[in-house]
Design a protein that fits this description.
two-stranded antiparallel sheet, Fur_C, repressor, Arc Repressor Mutant, subunit A, 5 strands, Dna Ligase, domain 1, 3-stranded mixed beta sheet, alpha+beta, about 150 residues, WH_DNA-bd_sf, flat
């Protein structure tokens, strides 16, 4: 699971003629250097610690643009707040159904997941999103401490 670094992503965007304001660079750096999957609000909070003049609109616009350019991914889980992933390699996610934490995990290449059943639909598959749902160790421990018999 080899993800592009901030430096590699920056060079790629520059080579494509993308305008890279200090705000865009800071947001991109944060997403490329974290292994978390933050919401836009979390990104705003983190980036505003170093760049006090940044607005929420700038964060949303930058996230939208970086997603369009393919250097980050947007993960939607139906709770009205997307999470953003700076890992641009093919990988799967573990999602905690209790706290919402998202963790990257390696997964098989697309070619090993394709099957004749998929071919029957006639789609030209370009990418996929594989997710596993469960309860993270921290939430399991909290449930056990509460006396939840299902996790004992």
């Amino acid at each position: 699971m080899q993800r592009s670094s901030f430096t590699e992503s920056l060079a790629d965007l520059k080579s494509r003629g993308v305008r890279l304001t200090p705000q865009r660079q800071m947001i991109l750096r944060y997403l490329k250097e974290t292994h978390e999957h933050p919401t836009a609000e979390q990104i705003f909070h983190q980036v505003s610690l170093e760049f006090s003049g940044i607005s929420m609109a700038t964060v949303y616009n930058t996230l939208h643009r970086l997603k369009e350019l393919g250097v980050i991914r947007e993960l939607s889980y139906g709770d009205m707040s997307s999470r953003y992933d700076g890992n641009d390699s093919e990988h799967a996610h573990l999602v905690c159904e209790t706290c919402g934490k998202v963790v990257d995990v390696p997964c098989p290449p697309k070619a090993t997941l394709e099957s004749p059943e998929l071919d029957a639909y006639g789609y030209a598959v370009g990418s996929y999103r594989l997710e596993f749902y469960g309860i993270c160790p921290k939430c399991q421990a909290e449930e056990i401490a509460k006396g939840n018999p299902e996790l004992n």
